Amino acid sequence: METLREILDAAARGVFPPADGRTTIVPQACPRDAGVLSFTAHSVVFTDEDPQWVRAALRATDCDELAATLNARFLTAFMDRTGRRTDTVDAMVVGSPLTGRPAVWLTEIDDPDHPRVISSRRRRDEVRVWAADGGVLVLGRGIAGRLEAAVEVDAEVRHRGLGRALVTAARQLAGGEPVWAQISPGNARSMRAFQAAGYVPVGAEALLTAH
After folding, report:
1. Helix (H, G, I), strand (E, B) or coil at 60
2. Any residues with CB less than 8 A from the CB of 176 and at least 6 apart, and which?
3. What is the DSSP letter of 134?
4. Is the pTM of the predicted complex or chain greater than 0.85?
5. Where, if anywhere, are coiled coils annotated (predicted)?
6. What integer pLDDT is reported at residue 162 of this predicted model?
7. Which single residue of 29, 51, 100, 113 has CA 20 to 30 Å from 208?
């Protein structure tokens, strides 16, 4: 059986699970993170719950079989079963590493009070933070230890390309590995910034975290 990290590493290379309409169930990579990854016509549920329960709950979900893993009824049952919570179903994007120096001036900082840093440290390990003039870039180890990026741009400097510059810098600071990001599909500004910086969509995910 492939591990969750192996599935993610393959997806970062453009190699996806077979589009066969099935659901793969794998153990959690760590106690913190459980959830669902949805690729084209194939889903991955990562949980330490009984796989038989997962499959029974999916069968009981009254919707198209391909949509069951991200259906609100299944996710609610999943949260009730595990005592976890989730915020939203995110688009999952990935960018390959880049060489060279960032085009934006960055200063690495330790700012535990910044809202983006607080949010990242709840979901990620080994969090590093860089400040730019008008923005913040965060890199940390998220689902299955993959490298994840998050950015924040101050309202007064938006629409000037800073978001794109920050997420491009994330690829240059990645140390030779892919950079992942989770983006709310309704956040069109963020989605455009990541796509303009060369990130590509690979699927959707619902991350379930402990209360």
Report:
1. coil
2. 97
3. T
4. yes
5. none
6. 87
7. 113
- Which tokens in the block code for residue 152? 């924040």
* pLDDT of 1 strictly over 70: no
Question: What six digits make up the tokens of 192?
Answer: 């455009």
Would you give the distance in Å from CA 151 to the centre of its chain?
A: 13
The answer to whether the beta carbons of residues 134 and 157 sit under 8 Å apart is: yes
pLDDT at 116 over 70: no
Which structure tokens are listed for 47? 């949980």
Residue 172: C-alpha distances to residues 52, 68, 116, 131, 149 (Å): 43, 37, 20, 15, 12
Task: Please tell me what DSSP assigns to residue 27.
Answer: -
Question: In this structure, what are the phi and psi dihedrals at residue 94, rounded to the nearest 5 degrees?
Answer: -145, 145
- pLDDT of 114 above 90: no
For 168-196, the DSSP string reads: HHHHHTSSSS-EEEEE-TT-HHHHHHHHH
Owner of token pair 């069951």: 68
In sequence order, the β-bridge partners of residue 124 are none
Residue with the two structure tokens 């179903």: 89
